[in-house]
Specification:
The chain is an alpha/beta fold and about 650 residues long. Among the domains are: about 160 residues, Flavocytochrome C3, Chain A, domain 1, CATH 3.90.700; about 130 residues, Fumarate reductase/succinate dehydrogenase flavoprotein-like, C-terminal domain (Methane Monooxygenase Hydroxylase, Chain G, domain 1, Up-down Bundle). The protein is about 40% helix and about 15% strand. The chain has 17 helices and 21 strands. The strands form 6 sheets. The protein has a 5-stranded parallel β-sheet, with helices on both faces. Strands 11-15-14-12-13 form a 5-stranded antiparallel β-sheet. The protein is globular and about 80 Å long. It starts with 13 loop residues before the first helix and ends in a 14-residue tail after the last strand. It is a peripheral membrane protein. Its EC number is 1.3.5.1. Keywords: Cell membrane, Electron transport, FAD, Flavoprotein, Membrane, Oxidoreductase, Transport.
């Protein structure tokens, strides 16, 4: 079942050789082929723009009112690329190696090396689009550090890199819309894939404004619908982010890979109460200059400014001297949890640690004084100048923190705690980004392919744009070259009618339950089960309990959920109900996957499998594979394994010490 289609030959020439031998579609034939793109974040917008520019007829769908509202816009810290502008030893191989190691040797070598290869092209593309990357005084693009690396390879635009990159991709997309190559469908949600003779031939979408179901034909379907972190209810994802598009493809036969690989981000503003429906991220770029610490004394309630240097435990610098505060996200997150669980947490909840910029402010202030050639300058003046530098680099992040917490992070250390952020699992795809459903492709966070068990910071934007701009335009030709003989299928085809009827029946079933509990209450209960038993740490007993609890929650949902309003109107509660129903099914599969993977790796931490120092302990002999789950029936999946073969990088116990 799982043919990864990895090209033969040396790793560093696979992609070049593939591009030289893949099938092509001539320009006249491209105009006859229709491609559907679901989602218009960085992966979707770049793919739609690239496909439109090549001459294909593209239909792009997003559930937001504009592609500019895609969740990619929320990314803050930066985008990786192996440009080696700093002359600090970076290279394509180094980026490839860091990504494989950061993912705890659970990623596919060929895909990761291709990602590292095309990374440099992404920066050139974005600069040409006018993305305002930060620059050094002399005009060169600036770089900063991110977790899991010892070089500076992250390009950024203050703390709003995702927004600027998305505007660039959006401009490219809108140009193709204006030229008539792309037709944009905003406020539409994909609710099923239409399969005819074993190939994808379109989708069923719901118009979220008037509630009508629509049929859309396509020779291929590209799913660029993002990740599923909102299965935990509280996450850094936008509240609309969901798994529905990917899940519909999964139920139709697309294998779902490594669903339990969830990334917990270490620098999030802590939960403040039960009223919260979303968490806010503080960019990982803040670990570039900030220092993370807790008091050395348990239960220390003093203000952080009153705690002297010798009374502070800079625990990441102590435990991981080689990487310090720049260890990968999974390592930093578990270390913060360990300190808080041991009684060293800070703040009212005691579920937080400090991220302190005092040292960075003084350091930058002294650099500014040196630039001016001044001596005997007061400490106040040094701090003032240092704050100005920090404000220029991270100002919007500091402002956001101040607005949310009411505290001034220039004066008092930020309080942070780990939170659900990204999902490394997703639809299984081969080297061409095609799922196990012919004609259905998955790009960006919707697929599993590039990050293993833990994504390095600033690599999500890299993967989304790499897939959309530089990978799919080549690989989809290998499939579409054989489709030029196939004329568009009428949307009156029985398969379209059958798929639409199934979607309609499900919506009517939901609306006719007329129970007593809100959709939100079910989502919140699911999130609590997932966070408590399949969150930062998992164990066999907890996962078995979680599976039973989710199955019971599912029965309760389908018998007692309350959805107000009507079907044929704008009804956000109905939209949310469908998404939560899919999350409940996904949650069960995540727990089954976590239970099956009896090892610790990256973001998947089984308490039964750890080193004496509390680090993740892999079991390469038994689990060096991609777990691809095939949907069989309700609560029933079959596991398929794609063995991971490492020809270049030899797996070893990760060490950041």
């Amino acid at each position: 079942m799982l043919d990864a289609k990895i090209p033969s030959g040396p790793l560093d020439s696979k992609w070049t050789d593939y591009k030289g031998h893949c099938k092509l579609v001539n320009p006249a034939n491209k105009r006859k082929l229709e491609v559907i793109v679901v989602g218009t974040g960085l992966a979707g917008a770049s793919a739609a723009a690239a496909m439109g520019e090549l001459g294909y007829k593209v239909k792009a769908f997003c559930f937001q009112d504009s592609p500019r509202r895609a969740h990619s816009i929320a990314a803050q810290g930066g985008i990786n690329a192996a440009k080696n502008y700093q002359n600090d030893g970076d290279s394509v191989f180094r980026l490839f190696y860091d990504t494989i190691k950061g993912g705890d040797y659970r990623a596919r070598e060929s895909n990761v090396h291709r990602l590292a290869e095309v990374s440099a092209n992404i920066i050139d593309q974005c600069v040409a689009q006018g993305v305002p990357f930060a620059r050094e005084y002399g005009g060169m693009l600036s770089n900063r550090s991110f977790g899991g690396t010892q070089v500076q390879r992250t390009f950024y635009a203050a703390g709003q890199t995702g927004q600027q990159l998305l505007i660039g991709a959006y401009q490219a997309l809108e140009r193709q819309v204006a030229l008539g190559n792309v037709k944009m469908y905003a406020r539409h949600e994909m609710l099923d894939v239409v399969m005819i003779d074993g190939k994808a031939r379109g989708i069923i979408a719901r118009n979220l404004v008037n509630g009508e179901l629509e049929r859309h034909f396509g020779h291929a379907v590209l799913l660029c619908s993002g990740g599923y972190g909102n299965v935990f209810y509280l996450s850094t994802n936008a509240m609309g982010s969901n798994v529905t598009a990917a899940w519909k493809a999964h139920v139709k036969g697309a294998a779902f890979a490594n669903p339990c690989f969830t990334q917990i981000h270490p620098t999030c503003i802590p939960v403040s109460g039960d009223h919260q429906s979303k968490l806010t991220l503080m960019s990982e770029s803040l670990r570039n200059d900030g220092r993370i610490w807790v008091p050395k004394k348990q239960g220390d309630n003093r203000s952080p400014v009153d705690i002297k240097e010798e009374e502070r435990d800079y625990y990441l610098e102590r435990r991981y001297p080689a990487f310090g505060n720049l260890v990968p996200r999974d390592v930093a997150s578990r270390a913060a949890k360990e300190r808080c669980d041991a009684g060293y947490g800070v703040g009212t909840s005691k579920q937080a640690v400090y991220l302190d910029y005092a040292d960075a402010i003084v350091r930058y202030g002294k650099i500014e004084i040196g630039k001016q050639g001044r001596e005997n300058v007061s400490e106040e003046e040094i701090i003032k100048l240092g704050k100005e530098v920090v404000k220029e680099k991270y100002g919007n992040l500091f402002d956001m923190y101040a607005k949310i917490t009411g505290e001034n992070p220039y004066e008092v250390p930020m309080r942070i705690y780990p939170a659900v952020h990204y999902t490394m699992g997703g639809l299984w795809v081969d080297y061409e980004l095609q799922t196990t459903l012919p004609g259905v492709y998955a790009l960006g966070e919707a697929n599993f392919s590039d990050h293993g068990a833990n994504r390095l910071g600033a690599s999500a934007l890299m993967q989304g744009l790499a897939d959309g701009y530089f990978v799919i335009p080549y690989t989809i030709g290998n499939y579409l070259a054989d489709e030029i003989y196939n004329k568009p299928v009428s949307i009156e085809h029985p398969a379209f009618k059958e798929a639409e009827q199934a979607v309609s029946d499900r919506i009517n079933t939901l609306m006719n339950i007329k129970g007593s509990q809100t959709v939100e209450s079910f989502h919140k209960r699911l999130g609590k089960i997932m966070w408590d038993k399949c969150g930062m740490a998992r164990n066999e007993a907890g996962l078995k309990e979680a599976i039973q609890e989710i199955q019971a929650l599912k029965k309760e949902f389908w018998s007692d959920v309350k959805i107000p309003g009507e079907i044929n109107e704008m009804n956000p509660e109905l939209d949310k109900a469908g998404r939560v129903a899919d999350f409940i099914e996904l949650g069960e599969l995540m727990c089954k996957d976590a239970l099956n993977r009896n090892e610790s790796c990256g973001g998947h931490f089984r308490e039964e499998s750890q080193t004496p120092e509390g680090e993740a302990l892999r079991d390469d002999a038994n689990f060096m594979y991609v777990a691809a789950w095939e949907y069989k029936a309700d609560s029933e999946w079959e596991l398929h394994k794609e063995p991971l073969v490492y020809d270049v990088v030899k797996p070893s116990q990760r060490s950041y010490k």
